[in-house]
Specification:
The chain is of the alpha/beta class. It is built from 17 helices and 23 strands.
Length: 545
């Protein structure tokens, strides 16, 4: 990857500021000076942040004075865990609970769906855990709904899919097929395929049904996503599955989408399943530049709790199933050990509490044998988290990134139908994690939930469940300031970008968002509705309302 030169931080004698922002609230996310009166920017960097008198020292004849108009200026927002590859699903049939809220509507949309250019019926965002009625899908149901075309339906969690008989035949999968590594073709008691596919490796055989996209076409869709992110106030996205769909081709499309004038910065982790590909390409930790840098390796220890594949200490309610690990403990430690030895930051997806146990065990095994300062290894989602796990993570220097939208959209399902109150009370325990000394972040896992950093803040502060309006374990609510850190400086730290963005401090890039209201002073249930007036990256306006 050819790196564009980083913009050097301007020195104190490099001339007048290009512009000064003042006349409103400025939240810096710098604990030494959490609020200031004015911010000065020169050559895309912050050269002063403080009182009006302090900033005046860098003001000259050519300095533009910009009035905030009473609005609130903050560091640009960060989504530390999303997936650009999922733009490939943009034209698939949407059967989410938001568009098809009950099973009858979902089935009707599938029955009347128009096949894609490949002749397959492709649908996404199915979620049986929060769709009303009896939303069961399997091979037999899909055969009745879609008898004349191959059909593939993806669950919103990204870990489960369903195929009809025609799709299984087209993929060459039958009852004699071996399960793929880290995945499963579900079978009934008689050994017949049910059509349920668990994990991405099981879905891989069906990609022949996906409509082909050129690199330019994929890059164009990614660019649309980047521009949408800028409209939400995001100035940094972190992709947790680069290469998940098509290996190096996904990376090429990302590079093309970023171009020379991307509206957001981008960081990412390469999928561990293509490790040999990255090695052959000569990829190294930190490859890239300040706009687009690859620094990590991503692995998956288990699946999705709402899908019943997250790996639990105790069975799901009303079942004998505890879910499953995607790798044996030894395999997981081998994956982590290889990436750690090569100097990569590592993120491991772990939803169930037993999967978190296995992941911490693997990290501990590797870190004891090969200690490394400032590794910033992460647990992604880290959903059902117990006090003793928090203590172990703190001792190892691990940090969690929480998919906080679980609380809003799936909290009631977890509490009442899947896990029970005791385990659900441990779901995304932000307050406990902070008390235990962990540095946390909040993410969307787009497209599992919408890319909305301010909504993530609201969910962590209120923990209100959409299904019934109840609060899920109010003791785990956190102050607004802590939630804002989890989508600014602490998220930037997890993404290895806190030296250049995430707070308003001298020397950092002027990656900023201007909000119509101060999130620390509005009713917490209104935080997600605060309008973004303007987003700037390195002092350049990339979105304006």
């Amino acid at each position: 990857m050819t790196a564009r030169e980083s913009v050097p931080a301007p020195g104190p004698d490099d001339g007048d500021a290009d512009f000064v922002l003042s006349g409103g609230t400025v939240l810096t996310m710098d604990p030494r000076r959490p609020r200031v009166e004015a911010v000065a920017v020169r050559s895309g960097r912050i050269v002063a942040a403080g009182g009006i008198d302090e900033v005046r020292e860098v003001v000259g004849r050519r300095t533009e004075q910009l009035d905030l108009g009473g609005r609130t200026l903050m560091p640009g927002l960060v989504d530390p865990h999303m997936h650009s590859a999922l733009v490939q699903l943009a034209d698939w049939v949407d059967i989410s609970p938001m568009t098809t809220p009950d099973a009858d509507a979902m089935r009707e949309r599938l029955r009347t769906a128009t096949p894609s250019s490949t002749g397959w019926v492709l649908a996404q965002q199915f979620d049986p855990s929060i769709t009303a009625g009896d939303p069961r899908l399997d091979r037999d149901v899909l055969d009745r709904l879609i008898p004349d075309h191959p059909a593939l339906v993806l669950e919103s969690n990204g870990h489960i899919a369903y195929a009809n008989s025609a799709a299984l035949r087209a993929a060459g999968i039958d009852r004699h097929s071996d399960d793929p590594p880290a995945g499963r073709y579900q079978r009934d008691a008689a050994g017949e395929l049910t059509g349920r596919l668990e994990e991405s490796s099981a879905v891989a055989a069906f990609v022949k049904g996906f409509p082909p996209l050129t690199t330019d076409g994929l890059a164009s869709r990614i660019r649309d996503l980047l521009e949408h992110a800028a409209s939400t106030g995001a100035t940094l996205l972190h992709d947790c599955s680069i290469g998940a769909m098509d290996g190096a081709a996904d990376l090429d499309a990302l590079r093309r989408a970023m171009g020379e004038d991307s509206p957001v910065r981008y960081r990412g982790m390469l999928v561990s399943t293509a490790y040999d590909v990255w090695t052959q390409l000569g990829m190294r930790p930190g490859d890239g530049d300040d706009m687009f840098r690859v620094h990590g390796i991503k692995a998956w220890s288990d699946g999705s709790n709402q899908a019943g594949t997250g790996y639990l200490r105790e069975p799901y309610l009303g079942t004998h199933s505890c879910g499953a690990l995607n790798h044996s403990p030894e395999q997981l430690a081998e994956i982590i050990g290889r990436a750690h030895a090569d100097g990569w930051q590592i993120g491991v997806h772990a939803n169930g509490d037993a999967a978190i146990d296995a992941t911490i065990d693997a990290y501990e095994r590797v870190l004891r044998a090969h200690p490394r300062d400032d590794h910033r290894h992460r647990l992604e989602h880290c959903s059902i988290l117990h006090p003793e796990q928090i203590a172990r993570m703190a001792a190892l220097g691990l940090s969690p990134s929480f998919l906080i939208g679980h609380v809003r959209w799936w909290g009631a399902a977890f509490r009442d139908r899947l896990l029970g109150p005791a385990r659900t009370a441990r779901y995304d325990p932000c307050a406990s994690a902070l008390r235990g000394g962990l540095r946390i972040s909040l993410h969307s896992d787009w497209n599992v939930t919408p890319l909305e950093p301010l909504r993530c803040v609201e969910d962590a502060v209120t923990r209100i469940m959409a299904e019934n309006g109840d609060v899920l374990d109010g003791d785990e609510r956190i102050p607004v300031e802590a939630a804002l850190r989890a989508v600014t400086i602490d998220a930037a730290w997890q993404c290895r970008a806190d030296d250049m963005t995430g707070s308003i401090e001298v020397g950092k890039y002027a990656d900023l968002v201007l909000l119509e209201d101060d999130p620390t002073r509005v009713d917490p249930t209104r935080i997600s509705g605060i309008a973004v007036s303007q987003t700037l990256v390195a002092g350049r306006t990339v979105f304006a309302r």
